């Protein structure tokens, strides 16, 4: 190893990157959790006991807040041993910024009462709100909304109309923070906060209770004293228990993020296996005579194996230690960035779990040693007679590898076919067969890479083999199928995963767009952004104005509520014209008719009825998000299953009890021959006072609905970038070692007249051909896997297969660029070969 430090440097870098990513993922997860725990610890800090409402088990996923009543507050204050009592009123609202759009997006805007002492506020400018029409806002709200002191902000909750408020104060938090956890905030008077959160009811989100000083009352005594006065609608718990509960909730989310990142780290490690194995294979090939001489003077096969594995162990240990250190540093840096840019925490806590170091070392060392095992065994089989030969040993045949790959691919194709043709009975078995078959095909094609390299590399090389140097480069790339295959396979894996994911997500987007085009009869939609934390809504009175627009055939608004029906959470809708609404969405009745629903009638889709075991004429009981009273309904109609119309439908009389008391969307049908653009412009004018919603055509609405898929594709491509970097290192490493191995050959070529420029072009063509081969193979396999996934999910609505053409073109261009960059160092080294030294014999 000491004599060949340069040959192992790039291999070490691959192990460093893989180990570092694993360590960084684990450190980041633990550090973010600690940082979030610290933020959680600031909530109600100093309180002994907290009193909160008991949330129903099913109530719209806890979207609507229950409150602690004023009577309970009075009873708490009158309890012996109770000292200071503070109250908080808090929940999400919508606020409109200076650009007319909703502030916050995925990070919600939180409404609270200024008197809320759950977190410590620092007034930076202005004063506290004193009247119901005044608010103070967080510094982050100022940044995100473009509004500041002296401006007017429009805000509303799901149960209130839009109201304008004067901004009289701007506040922050200790440590120079502009927010807590990255949220934007607005502080109201207590009465106004109660109007927004609890529909004006004198209730509170939380009551913080301190034991009276000098009474000797502890937390346990305080809990025991409060229990009799709380009743069945509220509960008391120690602050420590509340904090532990909050930490447990956030730990679940951070754990998922950590596992997600760890998965991409393992992909990078898997790719590095090819690089390490290839490196040791090439290094051992270059030491052929040396190993044969060792065998000739008495070294046993086990000694050769131990020697090679010792090199791998040392290499893996050094690289893993460096990788663990880099990963810890990177995890700490990422934690600091996340804490500052996303959580807006005053500081971040670096937590280094022992598992981060152990996992990084175990994976790095284990992968390196296992990757070197096959080359080590192959080295031990070199006969001593090789020491007396000058001829180059012929490459090992790829017949066994090809046959094995062919068998695995065939088995995978058969298993995939069974799953896709639903030949195994149950959906779970079919889906499992499809997944297993796709995995086997992936492994089989990887093994077939050597066999595929000759025809494909030869074909790809024709693109630039018009010159003497180009022809040599193409032949160099194809003359050692095993080496080319292993190098290209590392790149193929990353490209396969990215292509398969992008193909599936693109097909999902195309299926949604295709569904709207083929099934939804309405030409225009009224809706707001799906990224808003609180669903955008609009004034239902505007529907009459929309229906009056010249060219509008019909227009139907839609209310939505996550309700409780017979003890299960269900999607419930209401509309003023059920028959028209169902028709515009392309739905149809299977049974019954209900053009106008009576107050005690309800309609459902077929699957919803099967889930609850009910049908036409049966009775169900429903409780809506904001309602305390249960209502009995008779089922009068059954709808065919339709992704856009699935759910339950009641009369609009109940929308006051919905979570969103105003419509969240509307469909507009333009009359035959009508001018869609003119109608769209007219409706847009009507919605001028409702800037958080807009009128959209099919294409715009589908694009808005699928925007999260675009984010997912981008995120996955970025995370798989590490595997791509490792693959690029593999290309560079293979070329450099190949140049070293072919030193005599290069010297001979230079001796008979090849120029430095021709040598550089030869190595560059070889590099680009190998990179392009890996990309083409990865794209092909990725498209195949993407298609299999789309077919397997066809019954769920993903019924359109679409190729991400632009992304694939980008991958091919990136492969050419990778080949060009990877060729720089090897080409320079090859062009500088000393001719006399290269062709001389000892």
From TrEMBL:
This is ABC transporter permease. It comes from Glycomyces rhizosphaerae. It is a multi-pass membrane protein. Keywords: Cell membrane, Membrane, Transmembrane, Transmembrane helix. Residues 9-215, 484-685 form the MacB-like periplasmic core domain. It is found in: Cell membrane. Its main location: membrane. Coiled coil: none annotated.
